[in-house]
Every structure is written in structure tokens, then in C-alpha cells.
Design brief:
Strand content of chain A: under 5%
Helix content of chain B: 25-40%
Number of domains of chain B: 2
Shape of chain B: elongated
Distance between the termini of chain B: 34 Å
CATH superfamily of the largest domain in chain B: P-loop containing nucleotide triphosphate hydrolases
CATH topology of the largest domain in chain A: MetI-like fold
Shape of chain A: globular
Largest interface: A-B, 23 and 30 residues
Number of strands of chain B: 20
Order of helices and strands of chain A: HHHHHHHHHHHHH
CATH topology of the largest domain in chain B: Rossmann fold
CATH class of the largest domain in chain B: Alpha Beta
Number of domains of chain A: 2
Strand content of chain B: 25-35%
Oligomer: heterodimer
Chain lengths: 279, 354
């Protein structure tokens, strides 16, 4: 089928609409990426490698991706649970509960960051109880995970929710009639159906987490090589007028994010192909 | 396995879905639960399956109380109106599901599962689609897969909830004939729910007609059709003409007409129910129930359908054999009399809202 093969439509102007959207996409999405790569290409291999060889930079990139992976995994589990409760049960205050999930979306990230720091600092409401247990949350990687979990929750809940709503109760009943236990129904009937959307939600949460800045910098404490995230390195380099260094780090983050996205897409494609073609 | 239901009741808020229902299903029988939507037939079926819990009453399997047993332990096969096939599994995996979730001790080996699934798919004539996904099948094929899936675990009872409800007329007809044949082959105690009287009368050994959470009548299809026990059943089983009158010492009087009826108690207000094909047309008033002018004649098909208009404006529907119609030589506008070959008389004022 040709790309421009169009069906008769009530609204005219396919060519114009297509042209404008292509231009818009190029301007908004592709142009910044291109500029980033051009700018990095200008610095030469030597300088590029030198920037990255810095242990502080490498540690920060590792930290950023590791913490957001942790947060995405935590969100997959609890986001699924939250979505399940939201879809399957009706209880007083359900709407409030529903609205609360979007809070991390709506809240300015700095506000979230300050609130979390206040809570988990050694003298904070929760921090003072964790401190004697030897658990330090604020100013450690653990704190970053907490912040990213907070930020990523709505991504998982909101992507899984519509699929959960579409789950027919009859599937569970049919499986139950066939002698399946609850665990077997969850594992063999529900999970495979939810998996693609869960993967999407987790990927979104992960991508957001890797680039998150505002909510993390307060609680992280930004100790070099311990709790300093990659976006902060970029900002720091920009502050020192090291534009090339900043773009070098950015390009590496871009590359890693791109590979992750590709992997998740491939995984999703495989799952979708296995679990029911022609949907 | 036989099924017995004792005094089963269920309410959903203010709505009474089942009102102290008693029913027994014999071993190897194919029973139809027939009724309009909201009559409680699906609720009754789901309670037999254990998918819903009754407020009161008991369900017995082979005389043993199974009311408290969980669905997964009742050994029932359940077929849903919308198939409920697992769409992420192939046809083969769907049918194999029940066997593969058995505890390790009783689970058959891979080869045995394969053999059983394939023989079931042969039984439903779909072995060539074993590797397809449900989305690739037609409605009729999906329902057959659903049936094979429920049979895989060798249930003691097969329960079908409007199994043909989502299919188009032609497939529906084929499939119900096929279900009847299948039942004759495997003789599994089966209960199916339907709102289609033709389907119930054609397929089942016995029909249970339900209304407002109660059983109106139980009987063989022929009995139910020929001698309906209530106005509701009469109405529900097909088109019917109503004649209001009075019964006095064995005579039904309707205006100037009178008709002998035996074994009917005297009633000041009574209604005679006559099916269109149980009415004959005559030019003479002798033994007639009513008179009317011919308003419309539909002469398509083996039966000629006449619509008569009575003086009071009410319509009478008559179905005549084509031969008889030619013999009579009726034309629109003629004044004719209708005589019943068979009629059912019930006292007036009974509730038969459909």
C-alpha cells in the first residue's frame, strides 16, 4: 500500500495536513537532535572520548539509568496493583484516588522534589524513623529511586488501566470452570494479556526517569560519583561554558535511551505477535 | 450426573432474579431454560455452575450438596455467549488449557494432552485450525472451540449460556442441529439457556419456561407447545390471537358467538388463546369464535397469512394452507367467520407481561 494512498474523506486537505505535520515533527523533534549531533561531531573524537572517560561522568550515567530502571520495575508492580484496584473495585473516594494518581504528572517537579526531601531527610517525617535503622534515603541513590518512583507511577497506571478495563470477566470465569487456580488465572490468562501495555508503561516511566531533573536534584544531594545524575552533569558543564562536554554527555544519553526504546519495541512486537495476531 | 436445584433464591438489590426455584435435570438429559431477558434463566445457570452464589437454597449434583463447592471443583463445562476464548492462545492451547492447569500429579503427559486435544478438535471438526488464533476464526468456529475447550476436562455437566446468541441466523440453525447430534453422541447432562423458543423446542429433551424468577412450566417441547400451562407460556411460544369472553357450564361465550369447551371452570371473564394456524375460516357463523373483514392477504410461502379486522377494530391473524385458501376464494373486504381447531382458555386477569 502506498504511503499516500488515501481513502475518500469527508475533510479535504490530506496533502496539506500531512505536509504541515511532517514539518512540525521535523522542527520540534528532529531538529534539536540533529543540532545535538552536529555540535558533538564538531568537537572531534579525542575530546569526546576524554569527556566520557571522566569517572564522574560515567558514574552519573550509570546512576541515572540504574535508578530509573529500579523505579520502573517498582512502578510496574505497584502501578499494576493500583490500576487493578481502580478498575475492579468501587469504593468510597474512588474518584479522589483516581485524581491522586495524576498528581505526579501535574505537580511542578521541583515541588515534588522539595516535598520528598523534607520527608526523607534525616530530620524529616519519615527520615527520622529510618535513620536509626541505618537506612539513609535522602542524599543517596535510594532517594533518587524514591523520587523516580513517584514521578513514574502515572505512566504505568494510565497505560495499563484501559487494557484492564477491556479484560473480560468471562475469561477468569472460563479459566475457573476449567479448574485453574487463582494464581494460574493471573499468570496464564491475565498477565499475558496485560504484558504489552505493562511494558509500554514501564518503558515510559523508565524514559522519563532517566531524564528527570527537577524532582531528583534536591533529594539526591548530588555527591559526585555517588548521587550525581547525568542531567545534572550536563547542567554543570553548561554552567562552565563547556558546551561540547555537555552535548557529549547528552549524545550518550540519547544513544542509550534510543537503544532501550528499540529493545522494548522489539520485545513488544514479539509479545504481540505471539499473543494473538490480527488484533 | 443428575442435577437438582432446591428452593434457590437470588436478589440483586430490589430485583428478584430467582424466587425459590425447584428443578431437577436427569442424567444425560439436554434441558433448555427458556424465557425473556431478565427472567432469571442465566442466573440459574450461573448458580448451577457456581459462578454466582445463591442467597438461599441448594444445588445438588448426583444427590450430593454442591452449593458450597467452588467453580473449579464442580467439574462443569461452561460455554459463554461471547465464547470467552483466550485470545493470546492458539486454538490448540485454548483447548489444552484445562488439562495443562491440572495439578502435576493428575496432569496428563504432553503427548497425551496433544492426542486428547486433537481428538476433541476433530469432534468439533476444527482440527485443521489448531494453530490459528481466536481472532482468525468465525463466530461459529469460535463457539465450537469454546465447546471443545469445556469438554477437554471431561466435565460431568455441560452448561451453555445463550451459546448461539451472537451468531447469525443460518449459522445458528446449523450449529444447534450439530449440538443436538453431539449430545446424542456423548450423552452429557446438559443445560442451555436461550430466549429463542424455536431453538429450545427444536434442540432439547425438555424445556423449562421461566418468567420473573419463577418456573412457569416444565415439559417436553411438544407438551409445552400443545398444552401451555399459562397465558405467559402461550404468548411466549409464538403468535396467538386473544378472544375475550365468559365461560358458563362448558360453553365459552364471546359476544353473539358460543363455543363448547370441556374441563374449564366457569369464569365471568375468560380469554381464549388460539394460534393463527389453529384457526379456520368459514362463510358461516356456525361454531365460530368471531367475525371479521379481510384486511390483508399475504400469500408468500406455503402458508397464506390473513389479517382480519373485527368490528371493534381488533385484528385476528389466521394462517391457512394455500390449498384451503384457494378453495375458499377469499378477497379483501369479505366478511368471514373464524373457527378454532384448538384453543386454550384461561381466566382473565392473569399477569403475562412479556
Amino acid at each position: 500500500m502506498s504511503l499516500l494512498n488515501r481513502q475518500y474523506s469527508m475533510l479535504p486537505g490530506f496533502r496539506l495536513a500531512f505536509g504541515v505535520s511532517l514539518f512540525w515533527l521535523g522542527l520540534i523533534v528532529l531538529l534539536p537532535f540533529a543540532a545535538l549531533i552536529v555540535s558533538t561531531a564538531g568537537m572531534g573524537w579525542g575530546a569526546f572520548a576524554h569527556t566520557l572517560a571522566d569517572g564522574r561522568v560515567l558514574a552519573s550515567i550509570r546512576l541515572s539509568f540504574a535508578t530509573s530502571l529500579c523505579a520502573a520495575l517498582i512502578n510496574s508492580a505497584f502501578g499494576l496493583l493500583v490500576a487493578w484496584v481502580l478498575v475492579r473495585y468501587s469504593f468510597p473516594g474512588r474518584r479522589l484516588f483516581d485524581a491522586m494518581i495524576d498528581l505526579p504528572f501535574a505537580l511542578p517537579t521541583a515541588v515534588a522534589g522539595i516535598a520528598l526531601t523534607g520527608l526523607y531527610a534525616p530530620s524529616g517525617l519519615i527520615g527520622q524513623w529510618l535513620e536509626p535503622l541505618g537506612l539513609k534515603v535522602a542524599f543517596t541513590p535510594l532517594g533518587i529511586v524514591v523520587a523516580l518512583t513517584f514521578i513514574g507511577l502515572p505512566f504505568v497506571v494510565r497505560t495499563v488501566e484501559p487494557v484492564l478495563q477491556g479484560l473480560e470477566k468471562e475469561w477468569e470465569e472460563a479459566a475457573s470452570c476449567l479448574g485453574a487456580s487463582r494464581w494460574q488465572i493471573a499468570r496464564r490468562v491475565l498477565l499475558p494479556t496485560l504484558l504489552p501495555s505493562l511494558l509500554t508503561g514501564a518503558a515510559l516511566a523508565f524514559a522519563r526517569g532517566a531524564g528527570e531533573y527537577g524532582s531528583v536534584i534536591f533529594i539526591a544531594g548530588n555527591i559526585p560519583r555517588v548521587s550525581e545524575i547525568a542531567p545534572l552533569i550536563i547542567v554543570a558543564k553548561l554552567d562552565q561554558y563547556d558546551l561540547h562536554g555537555a552535548t557529549a554527555v547528552a549524545v550518550v544519553m540519547l544513544a542509550i535511551s534510543f537503544v532501550c526504546l528499540l529493545l522494548i519495541n522489539a520485545l513488544q512486537w514479539r509479545v504481540a505477535r505471539r499473543h494473538g495476531v490480527g488484533r | 450426573m443428575s442435577i437438582e436445584v432446591r428452593q434457590l433464591s437470588k436478589r440483586f438489590g430490589d430485583f428478584v432474579a430467582l424466587d425459590r426455584v425447584d428443578l431437577s435435570v436427569d442424567h444425560g438429559e439436554l434441558l433448555a431454560l427458556l424465557g425473556p431477558s431478565g427472567c432469571g434463566k442465566t442466573t440459574l445457570l450461573r448458580m448451577i455452575a457456581g459462578l454466582d452464589r445463591p442467597d438461599a437454597g441448594q444445588v445438588l449434583f448426583s444427590g450430593e450438596d454442591a452449593t458450597a463447592r467452588h467453580v473449579s471443583e464442580r467439574q462443569v463445562g461452561f460455554v459463554f455467549q461471547h465464547y470467552a476464548l483466550f485470545r493470546h492462545m492458539t486454538v490448540f492451547d485454548n483447548v489444552a488449557f484445562g488439562l495443562s492447569v491440572k495439578p502435576r500429579a493428575t496432569r496428563p503427559g504432553k503427548a497425551e494432552i496433544r492426542e486428547r486435544v486433537m481428538s476433541l478438535l476433530k469432534l468439533v471438526q476444527l482440527d485443521w485450525l489448531a494453530n490459528a488464533y481466536p481472532a482468525q476464526l468465525s463466530g461459529g468456529q469460535r463457539q465450537r472451540v469454546a465447546l471443545a475447550r469445556s469438554l477437554a476436562v471431561e466435565p460431568k455437566v455441560l452448561l451453555l449460556d445463550e451459546p448461539f446468541g451472537a451468531l447469525d441466523a443460518k449459522v445458528r440453525k446449523d450449529l444447534r442441529r450439530w449440538l443436538r447430534d453431539l449430545h446424542d453422541q456423548i450423552h452429557l447432562t446438559s443445560v442451555f439457556v436461550t430466549h429463542d423458543q424455536e431453538e429450545a423446542l427444536e434442540v432439547s429433551d425438555r424445556v423449562v419456561v421461566m418468567n420473573h424468577g419463577r418456573i412457569e412450566q416444565v415439559g417436553a417441547p411438544d407438551d409445552i407447545y400443545e398444552s401451555p400451562a399459562s397465558p405467559f407460556v402461550t404468548h411466549f411460544l409464538g403468535d396467538v390471537n386473544l378472544f375475550h369472553g365468559r365461560v358458563e357450564s362448558g360453553r365459552l361465550t364471546i359476544g353473539p358467538f358460543a363455543h363448547a369447551v370441556n374441563g374449564v371452570d366457569d369464569a365471568e371473564r375468560a380469554v381464549a388463546y388460539v394460534r393463527p394456524h389453529d384457526l379456520d375460516i368459514s362463510r358461516l357463523a356456525d361454531g365460530a369464535l368471531a367475525a371479521g373483514r379481510v384486511a390483508h392477504i399475504h400469500a408468500v410461502g406455503p402458508l397464506v397469512r390473513l389479517e382480519l379486522q373485527r368490528d371493534d377494530g381488533a385484528a385476528i391473524e389466521v394462517a391457512l394452507a394455500k390449498e384451503r385458501y384457494r378453495e375458499l376464494g377469499i378477497a379483501p373486504g369479505d366478511l368471514v367467520y373464524v373457527k378454532p381447531r384448538k384453543l386454550a382458555v384461561f381466566p382473565d386477569g392473569q399477569d403475562y407481561v412479556i
